[in-house]
Each structure stands twice: as C-alpha cells, then as structure tokens.
C-alpha cells in the first residue's frame, strides 16, 4: 500500500509534517518551498538524493508516541520457537536512529540495555530486545502511546504463555503475512527445536558443573544428530508448503512459465 501527493497538496502536507518530530525535517522543509524554476528544482532534487543517503545523526527519540509510530513502520515482533517469550527487533540502513532508540529504552529500563549489531557487511544495523519482561514493558507503552498497525500483533505477544505458545505463534504468523512463510516452523518443527534447546541447556549446565567428559560427548553427539534431523525434516516441510502453495495458485488460474 502506498500513497502519493503532489503540487500544492504536497506542500501543505509537508508544512504540517514539519511541525512534528521526524528524521526528515530538512526534506520536508525543501518540499514546503519547492521551486518553480527548473534549475532550482534540480538543485533541490540533488539535495534530496544526498539526504536519502545520509544518516540522521542529530535526531533523538523524545517520546513513546514517536517510538510507537516508528515501531509501527519499522519494528518486528517475534515469539521464539523454543520458549513462550517475546523478542523485539528494528532494522535500519543507518545506525543513528537505532542508537537513539537504544538510549531511550535504556533510560526507561535502567537495568537492561538492548543489543545493537550490524549485519550484511555493515549494510544493515539492528536493535534487538531479547528479554521478555522488557519486551512486554515496551509493547505495553507502545500500545498506550498509539501503536496502530502492529497493535494486534503486540496484544498476541503480550498474551503468550506455556499453554498457548504454539497457537500464539500461529496467530502472529497469520497477522504478519507471508514474508517469512517458508522459514517458519510447523508444530512438529517447534517441538524438535524445543527438544534441542532443552538438551543444549542441559549440556551447558553439565559442562559448567564439571560433568564427565563421556557424558558431555554423548549428549553433544545426540544434539548434533537431532540438529541434522531437524534441518532435513524442516526442509521437507518447507518443500511441502511450497508445493501446496503452487498447486493452489494453479487452481486459481496461475500458469506455468512457458505454457
């Protein structure tokens, strides 16, 4: 879904948006005074292209309301496979806004600091909240501050517990769409992942307690075997889902390429 506005309507909209905190203040300012002359328009267009590539280093998150809007557009809510928890994540091309969000969260939750890391050879920066209690606190504040698009997803995540773990994951998957459809685990896959996680935790405790080498080696070998089996069965389940989707599209009128 996208919308576009031009002409005087665009200038009027930019004038209103300029009054609100955002990372695009200079871009909006340019839009409010968009030139009529070709030379001036070209100069402004070049500046807009420069700003698109630049990091908004001077911006600072100052309210939960702003963060609610930002998270609505850019955030991700996840319920892990291995346990009924809540993970939050935001990815951005430039780091400054994420560092500002990190400072805001650290200020609101003094005992916890979100993790921040780069991926794809530094082309993407990610802010990650892995502690369920903090994720719940943040989601509650975002809902109170006007979270809209991700409100239902946040409510599902806030209600997850042992008794509805799998159901909550399924409900969340139904809301977020098909972007990760072929990466999501089915019920059997979730069960396998939880079993592996339990054994890994047991192995960690065993090693920490100085357990016997033989016992640790046997447990490690069992985990490796289960991981290989899990990868194979997950691939088969993904292939089955893909085939089912293709058959459904063919029934709905899609055509094979070249036919």
UniProtKB/TrEMBL annotation:
It comes from Alexandrium monilatum. This is Homing endonuclease LAGLIDADG domain-containing protein. The lineage of its organism: Eukaryota, Sar, Alveolata, Dinophyceae, Gonyaulacales.
């Amino acid at each position: 879904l996208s919308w576009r506005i031009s002409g005087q309507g665009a200038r009027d909209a930019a004038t209103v948006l300029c009054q609100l905190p955002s990372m695009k203040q200079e871009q909006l300012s340019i839009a409010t005074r968009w030139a009529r002359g070709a030379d001036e328009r070209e100069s402004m267009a070049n500046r807009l292209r420069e700003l698109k590539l630049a990091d908004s280093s001077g911006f600072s998150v100052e309210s939960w309301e702003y963060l609610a809007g930002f998270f609505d557009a850019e955030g991700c809510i996840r319920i892990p496979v291995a346990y009924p928890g809540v993970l939050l994540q935001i990815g951005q091309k430039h780091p400054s806004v994420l560092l500002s969000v990190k400072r805001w969260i650290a200020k609101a939750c003094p005992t916890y600091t979100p993790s921040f890391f780069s991926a794809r050879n530094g082309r993407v920066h990610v802010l990650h909240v892995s502690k369920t209690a903090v994720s719940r606190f943040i989601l509650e504040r975002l809902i109170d501050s006007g979270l809209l698009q991700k409100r239902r997803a946040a409510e599902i995540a806030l209600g997850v517990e042992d008794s509805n773990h799998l159901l909550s994951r399924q409900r969340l998957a139904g809301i977020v769409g098909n972007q990760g459809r072929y990466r999501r685990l089915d019920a059997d896959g979730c069960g396998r992942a939880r079993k592996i996680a339990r054994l890994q935790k047991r192995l960690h405790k065993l090693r920490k307690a100085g357990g016997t080498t033989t016992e640790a080696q046997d447990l490690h070998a069992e985990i490796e075997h289960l991981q290989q089996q899990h990868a194979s069965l997950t691939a088969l389940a993904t292939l089955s889902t893909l085939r089912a989707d293709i058959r459904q599209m063919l029934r709905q009128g899609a055509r094979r390429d070249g036919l």
